[in-house]
Amino acid sequence: MQNYKRILSLAAILFVFAALSFGQTALTQITLSAAVTDATATTVTVSSATGLVVNKWGLYVDREFMVVRAINGTVISVDRGSAGTRATLHLSGATVYAGQVNFFSSYDRSGACTASNQLATPTINTVTGNIFTCSGGRWVIKSGYEFLPATACNSSVSGNSTGTNGYTTSGASVLPVVQAQTSNSGTNTHTYVCTITLPSRLIVGRSVVIEDVTFMYGVQTTGLGTQVASLSAGTINSQVVFSTITYPAAGASETASTVTPVRADSGSLTITPAVASANVATTTAGAFYSMKFTPASAIPLDSDKQLLFSVALLNTATSATVTNSPGILVHFSTGV
Q: Average per-residue pLDDT in the chain?
């Protein structure tokens, strides 16, 4: 294994100039399209083999690094458990990071960084499994996710409220949701505002940044209208998606916090799927669509600020509509 690690290190040196000339700046993310049920298997099946190069590229999945040895369609022959990792089993659909072997490393990052100077992003330590990105001039580690349930959110409507608004249940499973309901008296928007709290899985002393948020929503009675976004302004249906309220330090004479939250990010927001292709048809009660919101840059979760995530859903004209949400999924990173 030590000899093989030396080979990979030499390969990294030999391929560095090729990498620079090739211009690769991001690891390719694909998935396994079939489970790996045998740790001794020498082939894996991936969702796409586009761009993979024999002997020069590696695959990293579930803390196992593999070197590409042959490509037959989407069936890839690999050296298992390379670069000090252990061959293990993998589920179908598992995320695979693919790139030139020198795009991966065996050490952790920390401190200041310049994103444009990095050979590839994200940067992965194949030994520890830590995934790093350069955000805001510092290395951050992709730490995980936090699911915030319906109780982290509130709902409101722009007019013609009817039926059940607020916390209720939906579907045969009696799933807890926060709900908005309007009559057919006019075109309305249903707005959901959620407070993003500090995740429970933290290392003391490390800052936290929000990478993206996925909003789950169901639609009953009548489908939604065509949604509208201003990505440069960070809004959907005129509602700012990421915003903050800054509270003053405790003192005898304070300037009160502002009434209207201010936008937390800058640059162009990314919404997946694009709002022009947003899912707007009705769903069975208890079933949900998802919409992912990614700020142009990661948003710090500061202790003196309340971070809000807000989504407005536009209804069709003069149609009774019910929307509801079981909560949001927040992906975050921590500083190192």
A: 86
Instruction: Give CA–CA dist 124/98, Å, rounded.
Output: 11
Please indicate, yes or no, whether residues 128 and 157 belong to a single structural domain of this protein: no
Is 140 inside a domain boundary?
Answer: no
Give the DSSP letter string of 31-58.
EBSS-B--TT--EEEBS--TT--TTTEE
Q: How far is CA 285 from CA 14, 158, 322, in A?
A: 57, 23, 10
φ and ψ of 23, to 5 deg: 80, 20
- In Å, how far are 35, 122, 129, 192, 336 from 204, measured between CA atoms? 37, 24, 20, 31, 11
- pTM (2 decimals)? 0.69
| Alpha-carbon span 332 to 212, nearest angstrom | 7
Task: Of 327, 24, 25, give the one whose Cα is nearest residue 176.
Answer: 327
- Map tokens 């000899």 to a residue: 3
Domain, as residue range, for 244: 145-335
The tens digit of pLDDT for each residue in 161-214 reads 999 999 999 988 899 999 999 999 888 999 999 999 876 555 554 567 888 999
Q: How many domains does the chain have?
A: 2
In this structure, the answer to whether residues 236 and 272 fall within a common structural domain is yes
